[in-house]
Specification:
Elements (H helix, E strand, L loop, with lengths): L2 H16 L4 H16 L3 E6 L10 E6 L3 E3 L2 H14 L6 E3 L6 H6 L8 E8 L5 E9 L8 H34 L3 E6 L5 E5 L1 H5 L10 H6 L3 H15 L5 E9 L5 E12 L5 E10 L1 H52 L7 H26 L7 E5 H18 L3 E5 L5 E5 H17 L6 E9 L2 E8 L33 H11 L3 E5 L7 E8 L23 E5 L3 H13 L3 E5 L2 H10 L4 E4 L8 H10 L7 E6 L4 H10 L3 E4 L4 H8 L3
Helix pairs in contact: 1-5, 2-5, 9-10, 10-13, 11-12, 12-13
């Protein structure tokens, strides 16, 4: 064959190989060309591309009839030849030896005349990718085989690159479909812009409005964020940065905006110029909203913590105020050795009552916030309520020389809990008296407003700053006072008012022109209807009989037990004192008590258990049991009833109330 015709043949073969994309197709075409070129009877080919094992390689056998995948026997024989081809650089003949008899048998060379010629397929890197094995009874024409294997190598490399690129493209498309992030590819030179990933989810609606242009993306950025993002992106693009990140608001198809996190990676040429940006946009709206809620919650928690700290400081101050004169008075009594009933005793009584009021406020706010307040509603004349409320504040009003102006017409009726509304209105009147300079004026008025009764307390006092008005009915809230805290209080009074009024279905509001200009607080309650029950008559007061009764006092606080015993003795009763459950049980074996006053917080065996044991004893079931404790919640009262107590009193107890219970024995 002439040189020209050989060259043309190679060119024709190369053109055929270019059209093929699979390694098996390329090897089959190469085998047929070798078969035609050399005159061999059969041609075998094996090829293992990079990152491919022998088992997953391409193995072809070709004869004059067709090409087909190699059989397992042929594969084994070719593997043996492959090991030899790795160390060979050119075509070589395989000698027929006992060692290689299995190779000849595997390739079907039963005829002793058959020879095996092997040509390695060597990549330009020097790595052997495979080999061609020619079977011929005579020396084949192998001059053109080297060129054919080189063409096969080039074709295989191209096919490998195409397959890799195709897999890479498929992988990117799958990732693009799987991610919820919007993906984009922006070529700065051609201005070609590609969207992928979750852009339709981010934008929403039809895909038609989503334009493949940087201008469309730019136009979807919130106007307030546009300049900031453009400046930031351009700064990164025209510098040496490889990455850029930005947060902004991106317009949804419905006109609302989503918070997005945009990240881009720049591709740069040899001069460092960015010619392309590949990026992703993530919708972080939910996270941003969660973060905003967390910031609000943290701010609220910090405010509550500050309010708590201020409350504890106020509580310490307020508790020390009444304790100081009590302690001082007791020290004075010790020094004198006598007591001035007209001067010393009223001081200690007033301060003790102040302590009781502080504790009552704390208990009230706890009951209210836990929903444990039960209203005992009845039809009540508003004038009666206001009279009772003013009575509680009269000493303070008189002491500060205030003028009290009442404007309460007759005939105003509400359906409410008498005690709780007296407490609420009394708190407003007391506040007005405390926060008005001596000699001021307090006006208490009531009137009908549609279906409601309005009760207002107006004063000429210190007023309320505008910024405090929205918070004045919150717990522990007070305007800043001087260090002497001359007005006192825990900041609970108005919170109790609001909650009690709301329990009645009413509202309360505060108005003030500002500091030093007085204030007006108004309660609005639903007016009573004719269908509501008539007022129930007041329960008769318990009669306190004068008969001497036998009483057992049990309290682990020895001072408290001895003092209560002394008071009960002074009232004409016979008492015994125990400081724990065992002592109480022993005393009752010799002391025939008619009534037992038990502290709940006893050591070892508490008051509940002691009551249960007493109820189980013969003859003790008629013993009157009174719980006297610092635990005053509704659940404590219920527990006392289950344990067998007849009554539950909270410390410090009013002696009249205790004696009234004892008198029923």
């Amino acid at each position: 064959m002439s040189t020209g015709s050989s060259l043309q043949r190679l060119l024709d073969h190369a053109q055929r190989l270019v059209t093929l994309s699979g390694a098996d197709e390329i090897m089959a075409a190469s085998c047929r060309e070798v078969l035609s070129l050399t005159g061999a009877t059969r041609v075998f080919a094996s090829c293992c591309l990079p990152r491919q094992t022998w088992e997953h390689g391409v193995h072809i056998e070709t004869d004059v009839s067709d090409s087909r995948p190699a059989s397992p026997k042929v594969r084994s024989a070719m593997f043996a030849l492959h090991r030899k081809a790795v160390s060979a650089a050119s075509t070589f003949e395989v000698a027929r030896t006992d060692e290689l008899a299995a190779v000849f048998a595997g390739l079907g060379c039963a005829d002793v005349k058959d020879s095996i010629w092997v040509r390695p397929i060597v990549h330009r890197t020097g790595r052997v990718w495979g080999e061609l094995a020619l079977i011929s009874p005579a020396h084949p024409d192998v001059e053109g085989v080297a060129e054919l294997t080189q063409l096969a190598t080039v074709a295989l490399e191209n096919a490998h690159r195409l397959a890799f690129a195709r897999r890479h493209q498929d992988r990117l498309l799958l990732l693009s479909e799987a991610t919820e992030d919007a993906l984009y590819d922006w070529d700065f030179d051609s201005r070609d812009f590609w969207w992928g990933g979750g852009i339709l989810k981010l934008y929403g609606g039809d895909p038609d409005p989503v334009a493949s242009s940087p201008r469309w993306k730019h136009d979807c950025i919130h106007p307030e964020d546009t300049e900031r993002i453009r400046t930031s992106f351009d700064h990164a693009r025209f510098s040496t940065a490889m990455r850029w990140e930005g947060d902004y608001r991106f317009r949804h198809h419905d006109g609302t905006y989503r918070n997005v996190e945009d990240r881009a990676y720049f591709l740069r040429d040899a001069t460092g110029r960015a010619y392309r940006a590949i990026g992703s946009m993530r919708d972080v709206t939910a996270f941003t909203q969660l973060l905003a809620r967390e910031h609000v919650a943290r701010a609220q928690a910090e405010t509550a913590s500050r309010a708590k700290d201020e409350f504890l400081a106020m509580l310490g101050h307020e508790l020390r105020n009444p304790l100081a004169p009590i302690v001082t008075g007791l020290e004075l009594l010790r020094m004198r050795g006598t007591i001035d009933l007209d001067r010393d005793l009223p001081v200690m009584q007033r301060q003790a009552q102040h302590l009781i009021r502080l504790v009552d406020d704390l208990l009230d706010i706890s009951r209210i916030t836990h929903g444990k307040i039960e209203l005992r509603r009845e039809r009540i004349d508003v004038a009666t309520l206001i009279a009772a409320s003013v009575e509680t504040a009269t000493p303070l009003i008189a002491g500060r020389r205030h003028a009290l102006d009442l404007k309460v017409p007759a005939g105003l009726v509400v359906h409410a809990d008498r005690a709780r509304l007296v407490q609420a209105i009394g708190n407003l009147v007391t506040n007005a008296a405390k926060y008005t300079e001596p000699g001021g004026t307090i006006t208490l008025a009531a009137g009908r407003q549609g279906d409601h009764i309005a009760i207002s307390v107006r004063d000429t006092g210190v007023g309320i700053a505008p910024e405090m008005l929205p918070h004045i009915f919150s717990m522990f809230v007070q305007e800043r006072q001087s260090l002497d805290r001359s007005q006192g209080g825990l900041g609970l009074g108005l919170a109790i008012v609001r909650n009690l009024v709301e329990l009645h279905g009413g509202t309360v509001e505060a108005r003030s022109p500002g500091r030093g200009l007085g204030s007006e607080l108004t309660i609005r309650l639903p007016a009573a209807t004719p269908a509501e029950d008539a007022a129930q008559p007041d329960a008769p007061r318990a009669h306190v009989a004068g008969r001497r009764r036998r009483i057992l006092v049990v309290d682990d606080n020895e001072d408290a037990a001895d003092l209560l015993s002394a008071v009960l003795e002074q009232l004409g009763n016979t008492t015994r004192v125990a400081h724990d459950a065992d002592s109480a049980l022993r005393l009752l074996e010799e002391f025939d008590a008619e009534c037992a006053v038990l502290d709940i917080g006893l050591p070892v065996v508490d008051g509940y258990e002691l009551a249960r044991r007493l109820r189980q004893r013969p003859g003790m079931r008629r013993l009157q049991l009174i719980a006297l404790t610092g635990y005053g919640q509704q659940s404590d009262r219920e527990e006392a009833t289950r344990a067998g107590f007849d009554a539950h009193l909270v410390k410090p107890v009013a002696i009249d109330a205790l004696q009234a219970l004892i008198s029923k024995v």
